[in-house]
Amino acid sequence: MLNNKVSKAVRLALAFGAASSAVFTASSFANDEDGAEAVERIEVTGSRIRKAEYTSNAPVASVDSEQFVLTKTVNTESLLNTLPQVVPGLDRTSNNPGNGTATVNLRGLGSNRTLVLINGTRAVPTSSSGVVDINSIPTALIQNVEVLTGGASAVYGSDAVAGVVNFILKKDFEGINTNVGYEQTAEGDAGIFNADFTIGGNFAEDKGNIVFNVAYTKRDDAFQGDRDFSSVALFDDGNGGLEPGGSSGVPGTAIFNGGFSSYSDSAGVIFGQDGSVRPFVAGGDVNDFYNYAPVNYMQLPQERTQFSTIARYELSDNAELYGRAMFTDSYVPSQLAPTPIFQTSEFTLDGSPFITPEAQKVISDAIGVTDEDGNLIDSDGDGIADTASALVRRRLEEVGPRRSESTFTSYQYQFGVKGFIGDSVWGYDAYYQKGTTRNSEAQLGNVNRGRFNQALLLDLSDPTGNTCKDPSSSGSTTACAPINIFGEGNISEAGAAYLRTAVNSSSVYTQEMIGLNFSGDSSDFFELPGGAVGISVGYEKRDEDFEFLPSQDLASGDIAGFNGAPPVSGGFDVSSFNAELYFPIFVGEDWADLLDLELAYRTADYSTVGSVSSYKVAGSYAPIEEVRFRVGYNTAVRAPNISELFSPQSEGFPGATDPCSEQGTDKSSAVGAICTGTGVPNNVLFNPAINLPAGQVRAISGGNPELMEEEATTLTVGLVFTPSDDISFGIDYFDIQIDDVIASFGGGANNILATCYDPSSAKGGLGSVYCDTIKRRGDGTIESVLTLSQNIAKVTLKGVDVAANYSFEALGGDIAVDYMGTFTTESNSFPEVGEDPIECAGMFGQDCGEPTPKYKHRMTFKWSNDDITAQLMWRHVGKVNDDDDDTDYTVEEISGFNYFGLSGSYSFAENYNVTLGIRNLFDKTPPVIGGNDEQANTYPATYDIFGRTYSLSFNASF
């Protein structure tokens, strides 16, 4: 039996729990036969499955391996996204936007502010933004996942602003385990097959253990056209309803210009297959917009193979050698509708065999090219301009599908030695770790913009239109072939071949680090009334490098199709020291069952931003064993990542509204004056002729080597109530503020446009820095918005986490009820200090993005006996409102959604287990919205777009 000193040490370890970054060791003493004291070391790694949140001075949610089985989780993000603390990041539905990876985003503060760990050390990032693709973590080897919310920078370093997600892998596995599973929707699509094989065992008289795992996943594609709600891109009709919409980049070619106002109510024309023109129909149930939805992926295909091994060996009683190695090869394509080109181009008009004489006259009067005096350039004097020039909108179906094929290959390994120094309570852990992620991407369906312009000008000495005015190849493998864009399907194969351009890229992210930690206590020197002081000190040295190498057309941005992307190369190194102290002031006293204090401090020296530091102060007080109050105050830093520092200017296409177009809601003279002052001609002011194509604007972003670190503070105050071993309840208030936030200037393109054209804003108006970032073409359409990164923003987040567990015996088995809920009372971002906040608590839309309900929860009801386990999961997503009060969107509120999943597991013949599951039990259709959606007329990472899904898996263990 342990003596009183030992009992205090054990309770100290349990109270310390997951709050420590290093392994905490406590010594227990027992008398041997000779009366001498023998040392039994108890190691607490900070994880208590299911109830870890009740032993930490910071909120910790824990998901164990059983949940991966019962929910048939193949890709980890799908399970993590059900947690109320998580706002979905990229996942299997992320076709546009998306890059083939899966990410985790705590509190909605950004995946780049969520640190991903494997067994307490960093996972290797995938992209220049330092974000980890959690597809690279082998699901079959996950023992449990701990989600520590709130600032953890003092413990783990940069990027842990929102918290950490720690994947704890299985160890000391003995035997053979194989698992095969498959899932499919009730519609018979979106299938996912997975299989894995694990073998492990002890050796050298149980001094060592080695585990090997191989896993394979094959995920089928599914298309937006496979569901009624997403098969047609929808617009808001302005009258409280939705109507078919899409893109003005149409297969027959459309041109919008104020010169067409007398000819077309929409100020636009569309070409018929014979080269004729007619007014563009821009509204109603039957219109001319191109429906791009059906061929877009709803579920991205994936083929993934993984090899992993974990090993340890006891070198002596006080030293253990350990290591792990993981390899992942993942292939993920994405697919969009054929390339739309929106480009101001000059094309042959007079004498063109592709355009009817009547259409030539209409076009000449509207957009014919003139000289400096405004006279038509008409060489033959027939009243028709030789050429015309305008923003051409053409869907290049003849070029073929627009497809990106990405292959991610990652490996990471770690080896180290840990143990104790002699017979003391002091332990050490020294390790070396290295990882590399390689991504190769091939893009199909891109076209060269320069060759597009070249192929529009004809040599009229050839009356057939088969000769370019400039016949050179301009970098193509073939000579220039003219293109007839005037009518659907009219581009010849020779013309399409001339436009096509091979685009590919490769990138490499490398992370290398060493670490050394010492941990122990003060028992050899002094003790507090509650026991010895826990101590941990550590050093870490980390180097990170990234290189992105695009092909020539991709680098120059002279493509239409996917976004241009210039080369990126950069890196940084950082050395850091950290220390932690745990003071068990009182333990087991009559007036206090527990009074403790935690302190942590980290200082780090970056090659980019210099020296930074962060600290933590936390403590708890338990007047009785069943009630504990806890409080924590953390400061955190996030150094700018490689992308934010070193990226050259590149383009993206976020959702936005042009206040000067028909899309704008304030058509006052004050707004009009700003519009005309920034280059909008009067004849297209508030006209659909300058509507943003597909509700997107070309945003030019880029890095800034002068960036400094972000600084954050996190306050948590909580209560834990455990009246018995069967009941636990916890409630924690959190208050997070991030200053000097690295963000695109102005809070992004949409906010820049809104601020520039807001007459009441002191920041906007003619001559403001907001309006200066907006570049318009001569016809009034927006060419680009400049949004370079700066330390200008601020973020505040407040709310309450609630967690509860209740277990009891009934119905011939054990019943466990687990609940996790989050109330978000404030989620504000300030584009600039002093600027009005963008309020996102309970909101969604073009500024806030993914829905952030004020309330979410995940609740499970589980019944089990020796052979059978059954679980009902209930996920609630609270109601949200559109973040743009001035926009007349049809769907301004999305009501709360409830999703239920039912699963059951049966073990038989000692070695075998079968699991059946149904997700989205009641086949809920997602909310269908118009112009304020993300993709597929909804937000597919938040709301289930697949419908009822069935799963079956079989497991054998020996």
From TrEMBL:
Membrane topology: Multi-pass membrane protein
Location of the TonB-dependent receptor plug domain: 56-164
Main location: membrane
Location(s), subcellular: Cell outer membrane
A Pfam cross-reference name: TonB_dep_Rec_b-barrel
Lipid metabolism recorded as keyword: no
Domain TonB-dependent receptor-like beta-barrel residue range list: 406-921
UniProt cross-references to InterPro entries, sorted A to Z: Beta-barrel_TonB, Beta-barrel_TonB_sf, Plug_dom, Plug_dom_sf, TonB-dep_rcpt-like
Superkingdom assignment: Bacteria
Keyword check for Signal: yes
Signal peptide span: 1-30
UniProt keywords, alphabetically: Cell outer membrane, Membrane, Receptor, Signal, TonB box, Transmembrane, Transmembrane beta strand, Transport
CC terms in the record's Gene Ontology section: cell outer membrane
Similarity comment text for this entry: Belongs to the TonB-dependent receptor family.
Protein name: TonB-dependent receptor
